[in-house]
Design a protein that fits this description.
single chain, 374 residues, alpha/beta, six-stranded antiparallel beta sheet, six-stranded mixed beta sheet, 10 helices
Length: 374
Amino acid sequence: MFLTHLSLKNYRNYESQTLEFMNNVNIILGENAQGKTNMMEAIYVLAMAKSHRTTNDKELIRWNEDYAKIEGKAVKKHGALSLELIISKKGKKAKCNHIEQQRLSQYVGHLNVVMFAPEDLNLVKGSPQVRRRFIDMEIGQVSPVYIHDLSQYQKLLQQRNHYLKMLQTRERQDETILDILTEQLIPLAAKITMKRHEFLFLLEKWAAPIHHEISRGLEQLQIQYESSIDVSEKVELSRIIEAYSEKFATIKEREIQRGMTLAGPHRDDISFIVNGKNVQTFGSQGQQRTTALSIKLAEIELIFSELGDYPILLLDDVLSELDDYRQTHLLDTIRRKVQTFVTTTSIDGIKHDIIKEAAIYKVHSGSITAPSCH
């Protein structure tokens, strides 16, 4: 799939901007703080209905304006696609092929993107929250029902935590409501846990050979899901539900004392293991970067294997963070099969003949000039 057209209105520092794109490599060139990342973020938001940089949607609206609007046209394997997202202080409205979507979970997944930015190098060494967010965003692209389950889970979790707090402070004495909330939470927790297991199994299948190749055959990558419950290799929904029921029964008193939910997908983590050692703790910076790069390249292949269409790749200021070898590997892998957007302050740092085929856009003070072919 590839994006042919993008239109921004009152988005961040863009008052009004319309762009046409080529279906291979598009380079967004400009100094820092001119709007390069804002444009990349806009493509990401158009696809995911949320930003990778902020959880506060109001930040996406241009100063002193009431709303921001992103429109895009794409070509997919099965035909043309038109998307529109309006972000206002009241919330978001999404349209797909001019039809308003009742829920954002119905909208996400029509346009698929893989973002690789400097903060993604934190995927390995960052907090568990970073890794949970990564896995939730990626599964959401290939499974709309997952977004719905996750959103229901988060609402119930909030209610359960609130009630646990009231039991902790003795504002409430009745544990029956807690038991009902637990009973409602368990199937959702189980579905999310199962889907994450399945996804990471597939991700490892794609990432392990890529990592082996980038490390010149010296490293073996494994991905492990660190769950709050013990689940055997054979992951079945009924088994996970059972495990959660046992877990919540065991920790009930402790949860009341602490006033919070102590088990569930919201506390889980992912471990990346290279040659038997956890890369987060024992890996060198080079190994951590190779792991992050392998994961991103694996995401591209995984989405293609699930949907039959390659996603759009967004490389936001990341090429300068990779050494020549990893940079070349990345650009060789995506060449002529994945539409790619690259932001950079200079093309001199890109040592690859892919530059000759690229369309180069220049950004200055929230305005982008049409491409010149290099």
